[in-house]
Structure formats: structure tokens, C-alpha cells
Design a protein that fits this description.
The protein has 286 residues and is an alpha/beta fold. It has eleven helices and twelve strands. The chain has a domain of 199 residues: Rossmann fold (3-Layer(aba) Sandwich), CATH 3.40.50.720. Helix content is 36%, strand content 15%. α1 links the parallel β1 and β2. It binds NADP nicotinamide-adenine-dinucleotide phosphate. NADP nicotinamide-adenine-dinucleotide phosphate binds next to α1 and β6. This is NAD-dependent epimerase/dehydratase.
Length: 286
């Protein structure tokens, strides 16, 4: 059998760990980059995956080091580039990756954030993702590289890594809280996001951008679903804003058509929420 070698950058992260897991299950050999391969907190969950002993190799690579990824990607039939700081208090947009958090008005894959708006609004994370994607498309075009971009919503679902990442904290923050923030998110299951990456890679006709986002739901609605799933859990019933306005962000829908055409089936939100909470319990986050 021909060895199928792929690279995953930022492999210890939340989404990337699931991606590595699925790739190993699909029979790929995975060259995984992490910043510190000797940090067991970042690597133990990867080396413990099924197939890792035979087909997972860890490499050290830091985004800001010029050429750090060159030797790792050499010989790979595909590269999944997910490495990027993923938090909202980034002070400048120097960190680039290919994925782009869709946070403002959009209807489908034709939409991009406006970099000027992001800069004026000091939305550094969003700016970094927008510039990263634009840079990637330009570089790919100029160098004849075939790229596909996955644009996920807010990812939730079980954690493989031992630490919390930014997107799941929106759920953890509801547990035991008095109030919920006046915000709407498009939560999507992390396993669906990982699966979309593989579907896009394995389908020769896949091209362009794919939004992988769930239905827009206000945090009050998320809190209600959690209450139905876990009646004894303390969950907020009040909005942090006095007016309890439900219109923090207009509840626009992002089209799922393109990614569904690749064969993705979305995990029901209730299951994603349940698996998230069970994962929090197992890891003793509350
Ligand atoms: N989670 C979401 O809801 C969501 C939604 C849309 C898009 N995204 C994008 O999806 C990707 C993964 O997100 P995630 O939630 O899985 O994030 P995460 O758990 O925070 O993982 C990010 C990974 O990036 C690596 N990284 C950070 N800075 C780096 C640097 N300077 N050089 C090399 N590696 C670096 C980290 O590596 P170390 O472990 O070595 O520190 C970490 O493993 C990111 O590009 C993010 O912007 C995420």
C-alpha cells in the first residue's frame, strides 16, 4: 500500500487534535508540528491516539521562524494548516493561518471580513484571520498551489487535549454563572470541522472556501438547552444587559450548502453540547 503522508500544523490544538485523530483512522501517516515536542501536556493526547505509534511523527515548528515548516511539509501530499493563536485579546495581527472565524454578517462563502473595519474596531484576531486567508489565496495563486479553506463557526464538542481552548470556554462560562452574555454564536461540532477538512482534501472537485457553521443561537437559548439536558446544573436565566435585548448580533444564517455537498452531516447541537459538558466533567473543569 502506498503511504499517504500529510502534515498538520499546530497539531496539539483543539481542532487539529481531532483532525490528527481522524487522519490516523483514515490510514494517513501524519507529520504533526507543535512548538515544543517535549511538552507532554501538548503531545501525550496525540501519541496516545490509535495508529499514532505506527503513523504519527512530531516535529517542532514555530510560525514566526522563517522556513520552520519547509522540511516538515517536504514530501507530504497535503498540508492542513491550523496553527494560530486562537484568542480574542491578541495585541497585533502578526500571526497568520488559513482559517477564518466568521463573526460578522455573512450569508455564504463569497463573504470576507473588511480588514479596515476590523482594524478600526481593534478586532485583531478577526483581522489576522482575514489577512491570513487573503495572503494564502494570493500565495497559492502565484505559486500554483491547490488550496481549500475551511471557515468554521464556534467549535464545541469533546476535548482531546487536557487544556481548555477559547471556543469551548463560551459553554464552560455558562455553568454556575448568574448571567449570560448578550451574544449569538454559530456553534459547530469540532468533529464536524475535522471531518470537513478531510472531505475537502479527499474530494478532487473540492475547491474554494467552505463554511462549517451551525445555526445562530443566542447564549440564552444555549443555556435553555443545557438546562433541559442537565436540570440540576446551575445555569444563568438572566442576561447581563439590563434590557435583556436578544439582538446583540442579528441572527443571520450562514449557508451550509457547499459543505453539505461535500458529504458532511452536521452533528445535532444537543449532542455536541452534551459531549462538551461530559468532556468538562471527565477533565474536572467544573
Ligand atoms: N475553535 C474555534 O471555534 C475556531 C473557529 C474558527 C477558526 N478557528 C481556527 O482554527 C485553528 C485552530 O483553532 P483551535 O481552537 O483548535 O485553537 P487552539 O486549540 O488554541 O490551537 C491552536 C494551535 O496553534 C498553535 N500555535 C499558536 N501559536 C503558534 C505559533 N506562533 N507557532 C506555531 N504554532 C502555534 C498552538 O500550538 P502549541 O500547542 O505549540 O502552543 C496550538 O496547538 C486556528 O487557526 C483558529 O483561528 C478556530
Amino acid at each position: 500500500m502506498v503511504e499517504k503522508v500529510v502534515c498538520v500544523t499546530g497539531a496539539s490544538g483543539y481542532i487539529a487534535s481531532w483532525l490528527v485523530n481522524l487522519l490516523l483512522r483514515h490510514g494517513y501517516t501524519v507529520k504533526a508540528t507543535v512548538r515544543d515536542p517535549s511538552d507532554k501536556k501538548k503531545t501525550d493526547h496525540l501519541v496516545g491516539l490509535d495508529g499514532a505509534k505506527e503513523r504519527l511523527q512530531l516535529f517542532k515548528a514555530e510560525l514566526l521562524d522563517e522556513g520552520a515548516f519547509d522540511s516538515v511539509v517536504h514530501g507530504c501530499i497535503g498540508v492542513y494548516h491550523t496553527a494560530s493563536p486562537c484568542f480574542y485579546d491578541t495585541k497585533d495581527p502578526q500571526f497568520f493561518s488559513l482559517e477564518n472565524l466568521l463573526l460578522m454578517m455573512t450569508a455564504d462563502e463569497t463573504w470576507f471580513s473588511d480588514p479596515d473595519f476590523c482594524e478600526k474596531s481593534k478586532l485583531w484576531y478577526m483581522l489576522s484571520k482575514t489577512l491570513a486567508e487573503k495572503t494564502a489565496w494570493k500565495f497559492a495563486q502565484e505559486n500554483g498551489i491547490d488550496i481549500t479553506v475551511i471557515n468554521p463557526g464556534m467549535a464545541i464538542g469533546p476535548l482531546l487535549q487536557p487544556t481548555l481552548n477559547t471556543s469551548v470556554t463560551h459553554i464552560l462560562n455558562l455553568i454556575g454563572a448568574e448571567t449570560f452574555r448578550n451574544t449569538t454564536y454559530r456553534f459547530v461540532d469540532v468533529r464536524d470541522v475535522a471531518n470537513a477538512h478531510i472531505l475537502a482534501f479527499e474530494n478532487p472537485s473540492a475547491c474554494g472556501r467552505y463554511c462549517v457553521t451551525g445555526k445562530p443561537l443566542h447564549l440564552s437559548e444555549i443555556s435553555d438547552i443545557l438546562h433541559q439536558l442537565y436540570p440540576s446544573l446551575k445555569l444563568p436565566q438572566k442576561c447581563v444587559d439590563d434590557e435583556q435585548s436578544m439582538l446583540a448580533l442579528p441572527p443571520f444564517q450562514v449557508s451550509q450548502d457547499r459543505v453539505i455537498s461535500l458529504g458532511l452531516t452536521f452533528t445535532p447541537l444537543e449532542l455536541s453540547l452534551k459531549d462538551t459538558v461530559e468532556s468538562f466533567k471527565e477533565k474536572k473543569f467544573f
